[in-house]
Write a structure and sequence with these properties.
With 77 residues, this protein is of the alpha+beta class. It has one helix and three strands; from the N terminus they run E-E-E-H. The model has no long low-confidence stretch (mean pLDDT 93).
């Protein structure tokens, strides 16, 4: 069994009132949950499904790479 690590972006969606995740290395695979833990667990399951489907189809899975979250300061008019 191989352990892989993927960077996951986790953010609160105030309109839908759920936590949303994105996995940049896997074509921005996305999932959500009512709690952070639930969103991350759903994402873990989605990643496993992605890896399984990719293996069955012979599609290469990229390495996680290093996602970086940065903040930009912007002054609006």
């Amino acid at each position: 069994m191989t352990t892989r690590r993927f960077d996951v972006v986790l953010e609160w969606d105030p309109e839908s009132r759920v936590w949303v995740t994105y996995v940049p290395a896997l074509n921005f695979l996305s999932d959500f949950g009512d709690t952070r833990e639930e969103a991350l667990e759903h994402t873990r399951e989605a990643i496993l499904g992605y890896l399984e489907a990719a293996a069955q189809e012979g599609v290469p899975v990229p390495n996680s790479g290093t996602a970086e979250l940065v903040q930009l300061e912007v002054q609006d008019a």
